[in-house]
Amino acid sequence: MNRLVISTVGTSLLTNQIDREFEENWANRLRDTANLSQGEIAKHHEDVSSIIISLQERAADKLNGKIEDIREASAELNGIYGLYKEQLNQGDRDIHWLIVSDTAQDQVTAKMLEEFLRQQGLNVDVYTPPGFSARSTEAFTNGIDELLNWIDETVPGYKDSGYQICFNLVGGFKAIQGCANTIGMFYADEIIYIFEGSRDIITIPRLPIKVDISVIKPVQFALMAAGAWVAVSELKNVPETLIFKVDDTATLTTWGRLIWNRSKEDLLSGDLLQFPKLKYESSFKRDYDNITEKNERVKLQETLAQVSYKLQESNGDTSVLANTGLKYDPYEGTKGVDHFRVTLSLRISCKVIGNDLSLRYYGTHNHVQRSEGIKGK
Question: Which of 171, 230, 239, 278 is deepest in the core (most CB within 10 A)?
Answer without folding.
Answer: 171
